[in-house]
Design a protein that fits this description.
- With 447 residues, the chain is an alpha/beta fold.
- It has two domains: 14-80 and 325-432, Aspartate Aminotransferase, domain 1; 97-306, Type I PLP-dependent aspartate aminotransferase-like (Major domain) (Aspartate Aminotransferase, domain 2, 3-Layer(aba) Sandwich), CATH 3.40.640.10.
- 38% of the residues lie in helices and 13% in strands.
- The protein has 15 helices and 14 strands.
- The strands form three sheets. A seven-stranded mixed sheet has the order 4-10-9-8-7-5-6, sandwiched between helices.
- Helix 9 links the parallel strand 7 and strand 8 (234-238).
- The two termini are 37 Å apart.
- Bound molecules: pyridoxal-5'-phosphate.
- The site of pyridoxal-5'-phosphate has 14 residues, from helix 5.
């Protein structure tokens, strides 16, 4: 297989086009998360990945790319990262699933809880949506209340009805369920206070990512959690993205706060399917079977939850984070990306059109036309131009341990080479330069 060096322009998507043409007959949406779907990428792009290596991925036509979003932020060390693969293989040779729990479940439970520090119990699952839904269920059972509060401006917490019913994509979700999730503006105490005033003694929990849109106002998380507690409401901190990125293990440690429960996934097992819910004993014990005479709460209960190979991946990922200070490396790469792209956009007087958001663990770019409107056409065009140059970019650089300075430099160089066309598109319209249709929002009512 001939691999194209990333400096060469990639123009051959023949096998990708064949894949694109067939896959939708087989798999609704063509992928197993809508975020990987064809409507999230320009048409001149890889339709699928054959394999990955470090920070690189390869498509069916043999094209090689630096992958910027690290498997939707799940790969914290790199693709096919040897110490993780070795540990996974080691577990596989001992058997992957048994009719009683595997002993390794206790090992990872103790180690992860020790890392989290403030929580006593843990429950595993294969997907993040499962643990956020489990947290919400516990909160309802614990408080005897129905309503769930979530920030309106955060994109995603679960594919389950309680969350999707509060987006624009409500098909298949009864209106009674939709009405049970209420919203406030993230990082805004007044908005949260108004919600508690509007629904007194009705909100079971607030579920929120710790930091997402903005740098947090001083003491915000602590004050918000206190406010929730004063109102008899539990706080669920969703660390799916922030876990192993903002701090080790996550933002609850960075800010020294004590949410009642926290949910984890993505980067904690380097892309393997290991997610978990951690929480205080008094709430988590509701899912237990020890309290004779108490009503049983059916928490997470799945055949594959204790799969040993994924647990092995989680343990090996912890080993690597602790051995090499992976967190500092990843954040340094993110900061380098931010500093270099900021300087580049300013040099080309495009800082109002290509705006950096500041998180060095998840560095994103917003795309705006000359009138200041968020523009999906410009976004798609920029991604098209970067993909041609061997950079698989979806608007976010989420560094992993295999991204080194040379890779950040290559991404920035490809961006620099793509800016002249962006300038022309801003003046003449993106339509002149974009092949195919712009990317569309995942959460839209109409296909
Ligand atoms: C903040 C957050 N919570 C929960 C989820 C759901 O995780 P999963 O896709 O593993 O179900 C996601 C997925 O993108 C997420 O970003």
């Amino acid at each position: 297989m001939e691999i194209q060096a990333h400096k060469n322009m990639i123009t051959n998507f023949k096998k990708s086009d064949e894949y694109r043409a067939r896959i939708h007959d087989l798999i609704p949406g063509g992928a197993h998360t809508y975020s990987k779907g064809d409507d999230q990428f320009p048409i001149l792009s890889p339709a699928a990945i054959t394999h990955g290596d470090g920070c690189f991925v390869f498509d069916p036509d043999g094209n090689k790319y630096i992958e910027c979003l690290s498997g939707l932020a799940s790969v914290s060390l790199g693709h096919a990262y040897k110490p993780v693969v070795d540990r996974v293989v080691q577990e596989l040779y001992k058997g992957n699933n048994f009719s009683r729990p595997a002993t390794i479940e206790m090992e990872v439970a103790e180690r992860f809880l020790n890392l989290v520090g403030i929580h006593d119990m843990i429950k595993f699952s294969k997907n993040g949506s499962v643990v956020t839904t489990a947290a919400v269920k516990i909160a309802r059972a614990y408080t005897g209340r129905k309503l769930i509060a979530r920030p309106i401006d955060h994109p995603f917490y679960s594919y389950d009805d309680w969350f999707i019913g509060s987006t624009d994509v409500k098909s298949g979700i009864p209106s009674d369920i939709q009405a049970l999730t209420v919203t406030y503006t993230s990082d805004n105490m007044d908005s949260l206070r108004e919600l508690f005033d509007k629904y007194p003694n009705q909100i079971a929990c607030v579920i929120s990512e710790p930091e997402k849109m903005n740098v947090l106002p001083h003491n915000y998380l602590k004050d918000a959690i206190d406010l929730a507690h004063k109102n008899g409401t539990l706080w669920i901190m969703d660390e799916m993205i922030t876990g192993y990125k903002t701090a080790y293990p996550g933002s609850l440690k960075k800010y020294g706060v004590e949410p009642d429960m926290a949910t984890w996934g993505k980067g904690i097992a380097n892309g393997f399917s290991f997610c978990c819910l951690t929480g205080k004993k008094e709430v988590m014990e509701l899912g237990g079977i020890r309290k004779k005479g108490a009503e049983k709460l059916f928490l997470v209960s799945t055949t594959h939850g204790g799969e040993t190979c994924s647990i092995g991946a989680a343990l090996a990922t912890m080993d690597e984070f602790e051995k090499h200070n992976v967190l500092a490396h990843n954040q340094a790469m993110g900061q380098l990306f931010i500093d270099k792209t900021k300087a580049l956009f300013a040099e080309h007087k495009l800082e109002n059109n290509l705006r950096n958001l500041q998180f060095n663990w998840h560095a994103s770019i917003g795309y705006f036309d000359n009138e200041g409107n968020n523009n999906f056409g410009l976004r798609t065009l920029f991604h098209q131009e970067l993909i041609k140059r061997g950079i698989l970019f979806q608007g976010i650089f989420c560094p992993n341990y295999s991204h080194k300075e040379e890779h950040v430099n290559a991404i920035v160089e490809a961006m620099s080479d793509s800016l002249p066309i962006m300038k022309k598109a801003l003046d003449q319209g993106y339509e002149k330069f974009l092949v195919g249709e712009p990317i569309k929002p995942v959460f839209r009512k109409i296909i």
